[in-house]
Request: fold
Amino acid sequence: MGTQIGAVQVPRPVSAGPEMEALSRFYRDVTWTGVIREGGMGPGTPVMTGVGRGTVRSIQDGRWIVLDCEQDQYLEDGTLVLRWQLHWVSGWSPDRGEYRAVMTDNYGNAEIYRGSIDGDRLVFESLDGAPTRLRFTWDVTDAGTITWRNEMAVSDGSWVLIEEYAMVPATAPEAVRPYSEQPWRRA
Reply:
């Protein structure tokens, strides 16, 4: 459909459909704490604790969902190593007949992913030819949390877990305290 302007037909923006309703259940404002496995940030990198938070909003009349995240990463002794920041935009691509996402982060990465929903799981994978093949999985089987996984493909094509978190609604006050004040922190 479009709008007729004189002799020219101008296409109208695409409306959000049921695919966006299905996608929206995987995204909430959340916090998390967990472990980045040894080598997860590249060969030789140590085990780190990740303490993160994410906020969600929709844009363009519900056509896209934006997820902005930050994760502070600490050595086992509590030393802050870095703050990772992510900007993730996902939605339904009617032309491609699949979910698509664009990810940018403060490491200079800018990649496109393709996704699908299978029951209570949302999975996005790197497109073929990506410099590093990644797979992200959101699992909402438990209504109180979102289990999120980050995996990387290795040379033989198998997937290796980098990190996995139980993301909880962002209203939990203990989840937003600095690392040094977290009740789970080892002395």
DSSP finds one helix and twelve strands in the chain. The two ends are 63 Å apart (CA to CA). The mean pLDDT is 88.
